[in-house]
Write a structure and sequence with these properties.
Elements (H helix, E strand, L loop, with lengths): L11 E4 L18 H5 L2 E5 L4 H13 L6 E8 L5 H22 L2 E8 L3 H12 L3 E5 L5 H7 L2 H8 L5 E4 L11
Parallel strand pairs: 2-3, 2-5, 3-4, 5-6
Antiparallel strand pairs: 1-4
Length: 178
């Protein structure tokens, strides 16, 4: 496994979200506080699993408000793998459209290269300074998490720039919260 130094620059690719997502003017919130008017950044670590989608849905329903920006982050071993990039881009486009339809929030997507997912999530959190870092669980048992470690646990202990929210896995048979 390759060690990433704290000062070392890392590879990433911005995901270009489609033009079918309309550009929405900043909401007029006369009675809102300045913090809400500026909007907040919320970082969501995603992958292609159902628990990641569940965490995304949880953010839309419980954490998002007008003028917020959701930052989707997917960590991959190689950002130049076109098949993986295109598959992830399709997922992120779908999530961006859903975020706009459900919560009327802007979405920014980024694919980051790295072998240690936890370190990369913490590094992105340090760069963005979000109000929260949200991720789903992998559905491991307590013993498996202790023996193999967990990205959520790593981020919980090492992410100093934002609180980490680990959304528990969804119940069997539940397709989506939305």
């Amino acid at each position: 496994m390759e060690t990433l130094m704290e000062d070392e620059e890392y590879n990433w690719r911005e995901v270009i979200l489609p033009s079918l997502i309309p550009k929405v003017a900043e909401p007029e919130l006369e009675r809102e506080t300045g913090e809400r008017r500026r909007g907040r950044n919320i970082l969501i670590a995603i992958d292609h699993g159902p628990n990641s989608k569940h965490a995304f849905d949880w953010v839309l329903l419980h954490l998002c408000r007008l003028a917020d920006t959701i930052h989707l982050l997917h960590v991959v071993p190689n950002v130049h793998n076109e098949i993986l990039y295109e598959t992830t881009q399709i997922l992120m486009e779908k999530l961006a459209v859903e975020a706009l339809q459900v919560s009327m929030v802007k979405t920014v997507a980024r694919i980051v290269e790295g072998h240690d997912v936890g370190k990369m999530v913490c590094k992105e959190a340090k760069r963005l300074k979000p109000v929260a870092v949200v991720m789903g669980t992998r559905g491991r048992s307590l013993l498996q998490s202790v023996l193999q470690g967990s990205v959520g646990e790593y981020c919980f202990h090492n992410c100093k720039s934002a609180p980490v929210i680990v959304v528990p896995s969804k119940e069997a048979g539940e397709e989506s919260m939305i």
